[in-house]
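Quick question, first post here. What does this chain look like in 3D?
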Amino acid sequence: MNHLLEFYGTECPHCVRMHELVEKLEKEEGIKIESLEVWHNKENEARLLELDKEFCGGVPFFYNTKTNKWICGETDYNNLKKWAKGEEFSQGE
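> Answer (accepted):
Ran it through. C-alpha cells below.
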C-alpha cells in the first residue's frame, strides 16, 4: 500500500489543479501518490474521514502515512514535493 495519499472530488476545481501537480511529481521525481476519489466512492470517503480527524474537513487532502503529516487544500509544487519526501514543509491553515 502506498504511504502517500491524495483525496479528491471529481468535480472539485482545486482538486483538478492539485492533481496536475501530483502528475508532475510522479513524472519528474518518480514519487507515486495514490489518488482516492471521495465524492462518488463511500469507501474512500470513510478512509478520508478516518485520516482527516477534522483537520481539513474537505478536499483536496493529502496524507503521508509514514510521517502522519497532511496538507489541506491547494499548495505549490515545491511544498507538495517536500511533503511527499518527508521533509519540512508548510502545512498551511
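The chain has one domain: 4-85.
The chain has three helices and four strands.
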